[in-house]
Hints:
4-stranded antiparallel β-sheet; 9-stranded mixed β-sheet
Amino acid sequence: xxxxxxxxxxxxxxxxxxxxxxxxxxxxxxxxxxxxxxxxxxxxxxxxxxxxxxxxxxxxxxxxxxxxxxxxxxxxxxxxxxxxxxxxxxxxxxxxxxxxxxxxxxxxxxxxxxxxxxxxxxxxxxxxxxxxxxxxxxxxxxxxxxxxxxxxxxxxxxxxxxxxxxxxxxxxxxxxxxxxxxxxxxxxxxxxxxxxxxxxxxxxxxxxxxxxxxxxxxxxxxxxxxxxxxxxxxxxxxxxxxxxxxxxxxxxxxxxxxxxxxxxxxxxxxxxxxxxxxxxxxxxxxxxxxxxxxxxxxxxxxxxxxxxxxxxxxxxxxxxxxxxxxxxxxxxxxxxxxxxxxxxxxxxxxxxxxxxxxxxxxxxxxxxxxxxxxxxxxxxxxxxxxxxxxxxxxxxxxxxxxxxxxxxxxxxxxxxxxxxxxxxxxxxxxxxxxxxx
Length: 437
């Protein structure tokens, strides 16, 4: 382990305090947007003396980054920026992130720490099926694997048949990919008549999307590997902000020497106590090119006590506050539905939520596949019976009325990156209703 991983809580807090004072001052002096926000809140960097003082500073969100698109949040001149990443921009302008040489070194080291914490070693071969490019997943995993000393296989996403061929021929020990695409790769093994459990993979490090215990169990059962979670987001750094470690499974160790976590009430933005559910807010402590101060991630989780390290852990994500659906006054997260579907072992972890508004009220349809082994074996009546059972269970567990359609394996489109869980058809429903009038 790194020395800080075995440090005492007092040593960790002293390091965090020193780094927090420095990053707040740099952000104030070098990023006009932060200066304006701090001044409006009546807070000066001199006021930040202790970690508890952090909550005096205003929260920022993705909209702050978009207002300063593309490079307005950078804290160094462009000649010190050596890498630029960006989000997909599917809900507006992309959020752009800049990295100095020092940032890339820090990121590489933290990814190496994460892989090692999960059980990776320098002697391993790592198959990377995250996408490369502006998305941070592929290059983050790549540099981390090389920093660890492992042999990196930079496959990137897509070309699923080739993924199986390379796993079979190159015999990697570790795979890093989104969990939904891992299942697509597992299915491709079956299509080629190969036993995925017989492949060389012993460890999977999965992230970039929320995934529940049902999907973890499915991956481990189908691949015969250990499936661990990694967390990160491009606005903060990329993957490697927190890692589920082999010696502390069930939650993710948050690398608090570089990122300070808070949990706030999503509605009020006010901090809640450790152990309470809320929205994760992150302050970078060492980021040079683009520091972020009290950034609202929209990810819902809770802070848990340390175990094998002085650093706190975060619970596995239960969803995102901006993924929440409001169906007839009931708040619903895709993860709520997934947890119910996972209770029936005849159902695969491939599902899609369709939201429509045929009249004045929203309706929610749930499409879910049966397992591959049951392809063509269930009658229409049996599929309807499973659907009715799931409708009742979702009503009891999530409090929302749904129409569940159980479909054959392979019906739903497979993602080669982040899985699309919600299809919002309300606009189409409104246009259709207007045309009828």
